[in-house]
């Protein structure tokens, strides 16, 4: 029973300590920017233009439709819709018979395995297998974000 009371008292003490730390680290008065109607002082940033540039009239979906509509007749036929898939299929169909064998379908993976198998044993050891890992791109940062400092982790 005593350990419950001691635990409760400890939790209460931690909660109070956290509250004091939070209150102590709260920011002081923040300087707000002047209201939009206020006169700008000399040396301030230039005023914004009177008009905002207009967006393109076509929506994203309209542009996508136009990419598929090759003959510009305001209609996408089945052939136009499947054209991109046919090109991808034709790249994989290396013997041109109109059918994909497993080897044709898995050519990229087969090539990757062959390149990783340095000793040509048809078995990848741990070091060879590690070379097949997907190369991930670095995450993109927004253009206005400063690069990380040396002292940050």
Q: What does it look like?
A:
With 153 residues, the protein is mostly helical. It has six helices and no strands. The protein has helices at residues 2-24, 60-68, 78-92, 102-105, 107-116, 126-130.
Layout of helices and strands:
Blueprint: H1 2-24, H2 60-68, H3 78-92, H4 102-105, H5 107-116, H6 126-130
Number of helices: 6
The fraction of residues assigned to DSSP E strands is under 5%
The biggest sheet, with number of strands, parallel, antiparallel or mixed sense and barrel status, is: none
Mean pLDDT, nearest integer?
80
Helix-residue proportion: 40-55%
The general outline is flat
Which radius of gyration do the C-alpha atoms yield? 32 Å
Total count of strands: 0
Quickly give the structural class. mainly alpha
Low-confidence stretches are none
Instruction: Report the order of strands and helices.
Output: HHHHHH
Distance between the termini: 45 Å
Question: Which structural traits does this protein have?
Answer:
153 residues; mainly alpha; 6 helices
Brief rundown of the structure:
The chain is mostly helical and 153 residues long. The protein has helices at residues 2-24, 60-68, 78-92, 102-105, 107-116, 126-130.
């Amino acid at each position: 029973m005593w350990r419950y009371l001691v635990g409760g008292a400890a939790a209460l003490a931690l909660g109070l300590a956290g509250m004091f730390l939070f209150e102590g680290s709260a920011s002081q008065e923040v300087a707000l920017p002047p209201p939009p109607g206020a006169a700008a002082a000399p040396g301030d940033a230039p005023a914004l233009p009177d008009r905002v540039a207009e967006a393109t009239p076509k929506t994203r979906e309209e542009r996508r439709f136009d990419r598929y509509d090759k003959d510009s007749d305001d209609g996408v036929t089945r052939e136009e819709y499947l054209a991109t898939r046919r090109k991808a299929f034709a790249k994989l169909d290396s013997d041109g018979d109109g059918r994909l064998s497993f080897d044709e379908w898995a050519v990229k993976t087969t090539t990757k395995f062959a390149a990783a198998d340095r000793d040509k044993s048809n078995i990848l050891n741990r070091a060879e297998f590690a070379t097949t890992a997907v190369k991930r791109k670095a995450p993109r940062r927004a253009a206005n974000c400063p690069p990380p400092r040396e002292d940050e982790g």
